């Protein structure tokens, strides 16, 4: 999330999804226009006010960095889950195709139909192999993500224990 304010009215805070970008500033501009249309903007803006004139509101870096790290960690774990599902769904079929490839390396006769099935299966095999490689790479990143979430959740558990012992 990114937050913007106006130099003329610092009490007005416009929050939009994402990071500071032209698109985010345009979204903030849309919100500003709504405020103006509703008569909720305490100051008059000069003609030509544009998205580049917004001032980004920077929060305490420690809080913001921690939240960003948690958000990123969740996204990494979500990606890992999607990749694992994709690998699991195509694994069995890919292994069958892999076994069928061995027929290409024998002197046994093969029909055009068998070769056609093999060629069709190569797409499945390729998709499985690529997903498997991406999954294994993502697992390394996900270990760090899991540690970040464990640390964040551990602080919640510590607070609960402290509250119980205070009672």
Can you give a write-up of this model?
The protein is mainly alpha-helical. It has helices spanning 22-37, 61-101, 112-166; strands spanning 2-5, 13-16, 55-57. α2 packs antiparallel against α3. The longest helix has 55 residues, at 112-166. It is elongated and about 85 Å long.
Compact description:
This protein is mainly alpha-helical. It contains three helices and three strands, in the order E-E-H-E-H-H.
Determine Rg (CA atoms, Å). Answer: 27 Å
Helix content: 55-70%
**Helix-strand pattern, N to C?**
EEHEHH
Low confidence ranges: none
Intertermini distance? 37 Å
Largest sheet: 3 strands, antiparallel
What is the helix tally? 3
Task: Describe the secondary-structure layout.
Elements (H helix, E strand, L loop, with lengths): L1 E4 L7 E4 L5 H16 L17 E3 L3 H41 L10 H55 L1
Antiparallel strand pairs: 1-2, 1-3
Helix pairs in contact: 2-3
Defining key terms:
167 residues, 67% helix, single chain, mainly alpha, elongated
């Amino acid at each position: 999330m990114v937050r913007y304010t106006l130099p003329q009215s610092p009490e007005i805070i416009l929050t939009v999804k994402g990071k500071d970008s032209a698109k985010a500033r345009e979204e903030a501009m849309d919100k500003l226009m709504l405020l103006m249309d509703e008569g909720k903007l305490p100051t008059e803006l000069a003609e030509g006010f544009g998205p580049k004139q917004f001032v980004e509101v920077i929060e305490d870096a420690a809080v913001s960095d921690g939240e960003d790290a948690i958000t990123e960690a969740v996204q990494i774990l979500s990606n890992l889950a999607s990749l694992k599902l994709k690998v699991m769904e195509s694994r069995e079929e890919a292994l069958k195709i892999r076994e069928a490839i061995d027929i290409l390396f024998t002197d046994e006769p093969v029909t055009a139909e068998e070769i056609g099935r093999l060629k069709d299966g190569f797409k499945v095999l390729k998709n499985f192999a690529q997903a498997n490689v991406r999954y294994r790479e993502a697992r390394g990143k996900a270990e760090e993500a899991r540690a970040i979430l464990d640390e964040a959740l551990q602080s919640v558990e510590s607070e609960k224990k402290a509250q119980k012992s205070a009672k």
